[in-house]
Amino acid sequence: VQADNRFLVDSSADRVCCPLCGPRDAHFQWRENGYEGHLCSCGLMYISPQPSSDVIDLTFDGHLRSYYARPARMKLRWLSRSHPVGTLVEVGCGDGDFLEAAIEYGYTVGAIEAHPERATQVAKRLGIRVEAAFVEGCQWPKESCDIVYHCDLLSHFPDPHLALRQMCSLLRPGGILFFEVGIVAEISPRWYRLMTRLGMPEHRWFYSERSLRRVLSQCGLNILRLKRFGLAPSFLLSRLGRTIGYGGGATTPRQMTATAGQTVGLAEWRRAFERQRDVADGPLKACVHNFVRYRVGAAVPRVGPQTFLVIAAPKDERAAG
Ligand SMILES: [Zn+2]
Predict the structure, then answer these.
(1) CA of 59 to the centre of ligand 1 (A)
(2) Using one digit for the tens of pLDDT, what is the confidence trace for 260-286?
(3) Does the chain have fewer CB atoms within 10 Å around its N or its C terminus?
(4) Is beta strand 130-132 parallel, antiparallel or unpaired with respect to 108-113?
(5) Residue 143 near residue 171, CB atoms below 8 Å
(6) How far is the CA of 241 from the centre of ligand 1 (A)?
(7) Cα 41 to ligand 1 centroid, rounded to whole Å
(8) pTM to 2 decimals?
(9) How do residues 31-55 score in pLDDT, each as one tens digit?
(10) 18: which strand partners?
(11) Cα of 10 to ligand 1 centre, how many Å?
(12) Alpha carbon of 170 to those of 2, 107, 131, 155, 217: distances in Å?
């Protein structure tokens, strides 16, 4: 993986810079796990310091399985309205539940998955090609896909420009990127208290609509379609769930620390999370959370944190590589 972060460190002042616009004014917004979120005047919030590679396991997936499986058909219905056929490759396919639904919808699918065991399992289960690699260094044939899909990865890539350009290089002329991305920057930090955690340092970049459009534009991409979902009802539901002791999905590091009576490190929490990924969200809870996130979320006013479904295409496919 060429996680080239040269641009992110201003050596003269030894401080982190905005990856979209370099050294600019930035304001402190949020502190978590020893990292600070700074909001740049361009609308991107980045964490400082940037985590070193031994702190972050980029093959780790911090979401429950239902997070990907439940909304898969809704997303595919939305996609198929403008792009009903073609070769779809998912970056970070996890357990392959989205791809399984995509096959039902008639797409020819493949995947690039950084976790070697999950890559092998999905290839075997669905009988498809899965390359065990990070997208930044993958060997997937250039200009071979109509759709490259990913979910909640734009906040994680060490270098979002590099990852987006690599994904564009996989597209045939006329191909598109399709993805979900959280929109949590340029909102009042009071929302972060409701959300309780932003997932630092696994999440390095936090986008507003403005900074999302900017990073896409810098990679030669135009947004063709956009669907917005307000997340305030989701976070209220999770908070209510915790208050009445009904849980809010998987155990967080803080909850594990409280239970164990001693500090639980991120590495230890990750191992525990891997064991509960498939079982922590019961079918009813997963169904309610999915309904509130996407059905209720599509109907509420656009204030506070949101999540976007985006279809974007290279402005000029020759410039995208
Ligand atoms: Zn900036």
Answers:
(1) 27
(2) 777 777 777 777 777 776 666 678 888
(3) C
(4) parallel
(5) yes
(6) 36
(7) 6
(8) 0.88
(9) 998 999 999 999 999 999 988 888 8
(10) 22
(11) 13
(12) 17, 16, 13, 21, 18
